[in-house]
Specification:
It is built from ten helices and 14 strands. By secondary structure, it is of the alpha+beta class. Strand 10 and strand 11 form a beta hairpin. Helix 7 packs across helix 10. The longest helix has 22 residues.
């Protein structure tokens, strides 16, 4: 089906006879392939005398195009670049490889996720060929202490990638979301494999809404936006993926030396809830206060009754207090 999808990606009509010759199969078999494409959630149009087309076309991931946007320095850090069609989740594939051995430098991207998820197990809507779903594995000596603030630093790197496309309006929500006017555009999910006090590997998952089809957006249970709404220029998925992977690898290449300190000021500058009343959803209670940025380790500084309290941990969510 890969060849068929790449042929139809231009959004133009292609006759069943043409497609049959290309794939070496009958026109009946082509019709069956079209049913499989529709099962991916793509809109296929059939017109007598014209053939088939995918309405609006597709911007499919291509390794060569993606790699063109990697710097020489980041190319040296890539162990394997893995492009998939449909997966349960890129983080799951990455985690499996990390559990099997040192997978540092493996980058996985997919056209579609059937079980994509965000923090606290929330579903991440992942339609085919529309947005960006990627995971990257990196190894650290020194355990969890060596990766303090990493999810926030990754947020800074993702924002930097968007700025390369003229999108400067994204803000950062503690601990791992990217917003536009309080609407979610992207999310980050970190998973740790290995010794929390020694060598561990971090699976860094990033999901970015690039051009979310409205038909799929119905399943999103929160305010959202995508990059196509933030710029008049088309954001190519290969270009964005290449720039993003480049930024992430450059971050990871020396994070063990510079840590979150190198990213804290920039994170604070684009803090979506800076000096605003917020509430934290903890495991069994809520905490309200005023957000006062983050400390040296990436913990949220919350002012409660005139005193600053620090909060960190993967099971805490922040909401506006309005």
């Amino acid at each position: 089906m890969k060849t068929l999808l790449h042929t139809l990606a231009d959004g133009e009509y292609h006759s069943g006879e043409e497609l049959g010759r290309l794939l070496g199969i009958s026109r009946t078999a082509i019709w069956k392939q079209m049913q499989k494409i529709e099962a991916l959630g793509l809109s296929v149009e059939s017109q007598k005398g014209c053939g088939y087309r995918i309405i609006g076309g597709l911007d499919l991931l291509v390794e060569r195009k993606l790699s063109d946007h990697l710097s020489v320095a980041s190319k040296a850090l890539v162990k394997k670049l893995q492009l998939e069609s449909t997966v349960t989740s890129t983080n799951e594939l990455a985690r499996q490889q990390a559990e099997a051995g040192d997978a540092s430098g493996i980058v996985i991207l997919a056209e579609q996720q059937t079980a994509g998820r965000g923090r606290r197990g929330r579903e991440w809507i992942s339609p085919y060929g529309s947005n960006l779903y990627l995971s990257l594995v990196w190894g650290f000596d020194g355990g969890v202490q060596a990766i303090e603030g990493l999810s926030l630093a990754v947020g800074v790197a993702v924002r930097r990638a968007a700025v390369r496309f003229g999108i400067e309006s994204l803000t950062l929500k503690w601990p791992n979301d990217l917003l536009w006017e309080k609407r979610k555009v992207g999310g980050i999910l970190l998973e740790i494999i290995g010794d929390p006090a020694g060598f561990c590997q971090v699976v860094i998952g990033v999901g970015i809404n690039v051009g979310m089809p409205k038909v799929h957006a119905k399943g999103i249970d929160q305010k959202w936006s995508d990059l196509s709404q933030l710029t008049e220029e088309r954001v190519g998925r290969n270009e964005l993926a290449g720039v993003l992977v480049d930024q992430l690898l450059l971050l990871l290449g020396n994070y063990h030396e510079v840590g979150f300190a190198a990213y804290r000021e920039e994170w604070i500058r684009y803090d979506a809830y800076a000096n605003q009343p917020v509430k934290l959803l903890l495991m069994s209670k809520e905490k309200e206060g005023v957000a006062r940025g983050v400390n040296e380790t990436g913990a949220l500084r919350l002012e409660v009754d005139g005193e600053i309290q620090a909060f960190s941990g993967g099971e805490i969510s922040l909401r506006g207090a309005e």
